[in-house]
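Now for today's protein.

===
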Amino acid sequence: MVFVSGHGMLDNNLDFYFGTHDVDFNDPGLRGLKYEDMETLLDGIPARKKLLMIDACHSGKSIRPG
């Protein structure tokens, strides 16, 4: 289980970024942590079940139907 809490923001493409300590709020892609990168980190963990909880603004926007 991974839980993160902090600032969340969307870029111009509506991609979610978790705000790192040095994030540029005008361009979160520069130093923010992209949601897809967080998923990739979890994919590398060999556990059968994983849970990622995000307490941040706009975090609900990171779920896209597909």
Summary: The mean pLDDT is 87. The helical segments are 35-43. The two ends are 24 Å apart (CA to CA). The beta strands are 2-5, 8-10, 16-18, 33-34, 52-55.
